[in-house]
Every structure is written in C-alpha cells, then in structure tokens.
Specification:
22% helix; 22% strand
Length: 156
Amino acid sequence: MRHQPLCQTNFSDKNLFLSFCRLQQENDRLRAKLTSSMHEHLRGSPSAVVVDGAAETGDRVMIVWSEEHRNFALYSEGPHAPLNFLHSDSLGALKLSLPPSARRYATAEVTEKEYCQAKKAENRFRVPQGTKSVKHDLTANFQRSNCFFSRAGSIG
C-alpha cells in the first residue's frame, strides 16, 4: 500500500525524506499485520463482518476499542470508511464498559443506526466539530447469517 500524495511531498532534507519513507513503510507493514490478525481472529467467528462502508441493520460486526476516540467503534477498513461508533445503550448487552476493563472487542449484530454530527468542539467521540458519524445500537443475539469481508485497505 503506497501513500502517493505524502511520498511526493517535497523535502528539503534528504535524511528527513528517507526517515519519512521508512516510517511510512513500517506503518504500511503494521497496518497489513493488523488487518491479517483481525481477519485471522474473525475466521474463528464466521458470523462477523468487516465493514467497508456504513453497517446496515442485520449486519454482524466486530466492535473494537479506539484509543483515538476513547470509545468503542465498529472495526472497518477502506480509505473512505465512515466513523461508526457503538451507541452507549448497547454497552451492557455486550458486557462492555467505558473505559474498557478487560474486554476491548466483541462481535454483535446491528439493530439500529443513527446519523450524528458533532455540534461541539469537545464531544464524547473526540472528533472535530462538524464531523459526521453513525452511532449503532447492537445486540449479542444473532438472528441471521450475514458474513462477508471487505477488500484489504487502510484501517479507519
């Protein structure tokens, strides 16, 4: 995976450019390793979905703790993957807590979704004011067999 716009950035210092490229390669390697690890974990749970877009009602998804947002988010891949967060009302049903104690991930089925926009600069998902996202109500009780994996891409 190559980050064309950033690699074509003009650097006045050749050493800085080489360091930047090495870090970018390491970042790509770690992203690929994380994606592979998540796919391996999901193979043991054939009901889970890796979202490459907005999750729909009935989709089975993997929820992971996001340090960046200090909240649980739906695991997603793809360059344009939207921000998908777990609705706080679903925490108890999935035996999750904020902040997470021991469990940092779970699989569940989407029961509802709500489109949101950050109205304040300081908000629960730690996103810039005006950022659009989706909050999902989830249940641990799976009712249908909907399973797919998106193409490999960047992790959002």
